[in-house]
Structure formats: C-alpha cells, structure tokens
Design a protein that fits this description.
By secondary structure, this protein is of the alpha/beta class. Helices cover 40% and strands 19% of the residues. Helix 1 (11-23) links the parallel strand 1 (3-7) and strand 2. The radius of gyration is 19 Å and the shape is elongated. The structure holds calcium ion (CA).
C-alpha cells in the first residue's frame, strides 16, 4: 500500500483516479488546487504526489518548486502536452517522472511504484553494496558517490543513472536499457541524453576526452575510469 496525494482540479479525473488507486489497495488524499495540495502534503505526509500541471490557482511548475522547497517526496507530473522541452524542464525542477494525459490508472500506478523504488526502499538489498570503478565509488545504501575521495552532489536521478552504470562497468549500456532499468519506461531517449550531459558535468568529464562516461555512438554509454588503466 502506498499513501498517494493527488493534486488535480478536474473533478472527474480526481474522483476516477482516487477510486482506481483505492481499489488497488492504496491510501489516497486529494486536493482540487495547488495551495490545498501543498497543505495536504505538509499535514498528510504522503509517500508520493501526482501533480496536475494545469491548476486554477498556481502553475504546476511553480507548485513543484514549492513542494521541493518543503519535501523530498517523489512527484509525478501529469501533463496534457507531450512536450519534451517542458518535460525535461520539469525533471530538472525536481519532478521524478511524468505521465501524459489521458493516462490509465494502471500505468500511473506503475510509475508510482517505479519512483518509490528509485527513492530507495529497504527491499533493494542486493543493490546496496558499494561499487568502485577506478577512482569512482558509488554507495547505493548511503546514496553517495565520490571521485578520488571528493563527494559528488547528484540529484536522485543522476545518482540512479550513475549507480546503474557503475553496476555494469566496462559494458556498453544502451539508452533503451537505461530508460527501462532506471526510469522504468520505454519512451523519450532524449531524457537520458539530457541527464547524461548533466551527470558528465558533475563528474568533471571533458566530452572530448572523457574520464568516466564513454559514449559509443549509436550503441550506448559505458562507465570506465580511463585513468585506471585496463583494470
Ligand atoms: Ca487541470
């Protein structure tokens, strides 16, 4: 059971989604506007938030910023527009995932489970062993990563991408695989590219001559420490 907060002004969607998630055994709170949603978030402390972008009182983007200022709760944005620029912007602003309307409740439930899994449940035991790739150390249990002893400041998604690559060192991982394993979805390979470029910046990699993230054009990406020789 997951405690979900739905912030959605359309009463039809709100009611249908509440019923569908309740029928699947989840606890659901809902709010018809942004400020009501923010209040519910603070008082009810849900485990995940489904946020409609088109709200009457405050824009979804602005509300997302307010939610992020108050809480690290996973947020799934529901948008009527399948617009990659907007989606990338929202992910950058702290959304964990998105669904495009109209979506069905089963799809949304799968997204909720995926973000909770990424947010780090205690069930991820076999993935909790720290991995070292040359000068890079990734510790999934503590959700920390460092290069040559210097800690990296990564977002949740950046960490998950890096951890997945670190668990597959020296192997070319396709964007498709990253989408499936980290995002738990199959569309929007550009999202992967955007996050990889942010991750590259934080790793201090020179795109022309990278130390860690090696792009194999048309195939995928491989994590390897170029300074660690052939180890
Ligand atoms: Ca709306």
């Amino acid at each position: 059971m997951v405690h979900v907060l739905i912030i959605e002004d359309d009463p039809g969607i709100r009611t249908a989604l509440t019923r569908a998630l309740q029928a699947r055994g989840h606890a659901v709170d809902s709010a018809p506007d942004g400020l009501g949603g923010l209040q519910s978030l603070l008082t009810q402390e849900p485990e995940a938030v489904i946020l409609d972008l088109g709200l009457p009182d405050v824009s979804g983007e602005r509300l997302l910023g307010m939610i992020r200022a108050a809480s690290a709760v996973p947020v799934i944005v529901a948008t009527a527009r399948d617009d990659e620029d907007l989606i990338v912007k929202l992910l950058d602003a702290g959304a964990d995932d998105y669904v495009v309307k109209p979506y069905d409740p089963a799809q949304l439930e799968a997204r909720v489970r995926a973000v909770l899994r990424r947010a780090g449940g205690p069930e991820d035991e076999q993935r909790s062993v720290a991995v070292t790739v040359g000068g890079l150390t990734v510790d999934p249990a503590r959700r920390t990563a460092e290069i040559d002893g210097r800690p990296l400041d990564l977002t949740r998604l950046e960490f998950d991408v890096l951890a997945y690559l670190a668990q597959n060192p020296g192997r070319v991982v396709s964007r498709k695989e990253l989408l499936r394993e980290v995002w738990q979805r199959t569309d929007s390979a550009r999202t992967v590219d955007v996050h990889l470029s942010w991750l590259r910046r934080k790793l201090g990699d020179d795109p022309e001559s990278p130390r860690f993230l090696h792009v194999h054009r048309g195939v995928g990406i491989m994590l390897e420490d170029a300074r660690a020789g052939s180890a």
